[in-house]
Amino acid sequence: MRVLRVRVVSELQNDLGMSGRRYLLISPCRNEEQYMRQTLETVVAQSIRPARWVIVDDGSSDETPKILAEYAALHDWITIVTRSDRGHRAVGPGVVDAFYAGYESIDPDAYDYLCKLDLDLRLPTEYFALLMERMEKNSAIATCSGKAYIERGGWLVNEGHGDETSIGASKFYRVSCFKKLGGFVREVMWDGIDCHRCRMNGWIACSWDEPELRFVHLRPEGTSQKNVFAGRRRHGYGQYFMGTGFLYMLASAVFRLKEKPYLIGSLAMLSGWLSGLLQRKPRYADREFRRFLRHYQWRALLVGKRRAVEEIYRAHGVSAEY
């Protein structure tokens, strides 16, 4: 009888996400039939399942709607929001717009955490449970994630994201912090701006490279719209929009010379940044943010990213150990 009671309590905790662990997933997607079943299955298999998973079908023309309907019929905590077809895949602001189509369909105050989750990932079973556990241990953590890996030649290869950011494909947030930030900026580099804004507020943005928090990115980063070259150029423009200075952009391009497509990829990044400058395109309107960013980038060039981030945390009286 005691064994049965323990099992029932355990199942109830799993269904409700445990007290204080109600988390919401929002997944913008478009034409994901090739990858999405792996994401769906690994979320269903989580040790603590989400209280709600809102999946926004952003005008898919393949088998995506059929697969989503299949899973929604099996799991009452999965909700589908359907948007009209714009005729093409849109990254950056398009993804954020689709995210908000899901966000506006729920009451965020009903949840403790939320995650913008892509549908081209394969997640470890304890993924969300461990993220919540770490955020419970350190109230200064506003957003976090594990590390993204891609499969290449039978090996898992780190995509190379810094420890000072939560990764856009799986951006896990404390709801209270997300609301205070005003959410995501609807522009390219939204997933970098938010992490810098967290640090401006004295909050930690981070990711951990540990086996139990490593997830597989089934589609290599920067290839979802056209190709790697276009993705790198878009990244360069995003850095321009965010407010990144040229010297830091140049250093970043040099650092990424070791990554395929090597020289061409780095030149594409610089091309994106310079095109924004030469065309006098608008930059992120928050001048205080841009000053904060430039100061951080100068310190990063002088003493390294890790120490520059630690200096920000110390200035806010926050421990850099997370």
Order of helices and strands: HEHEHEHEEHEEEEHHEEHHHHH
Task: Please indicate the percent range of residues in DSSP E strands (runs of 2 or more).
Answer: 15-25%
Which CATH architecture of the largest domain is right?
Alpha-Beta Complex
Structural class by helix and strand composition: alpha/beta
Q: Give the number of helices.
A: 12
Instruction: Tally the structural domains.
Output: 2
Number of separate strands: 11
Helix % is: 40-55%
Tell me what the structure shows.
This protein has 322 residues and is an alpha/beta fold. It has 2 domains: 21-217, Spore Coat Polysaccharide Biosynthesis Protein SpsA, Chain A, CATH 3.90.550.10; 228-284. Helix content is 45%, strand content 17%. The chain is built from 12 helices and 11 strands. The strands form 2 sheets. It has a 7-stranded mixed beta sheet with strand order 3-2-1-4-9-6-10, with helices on both faces. Helix 3 (64-74) links the parallel strand 2 and strand 3.
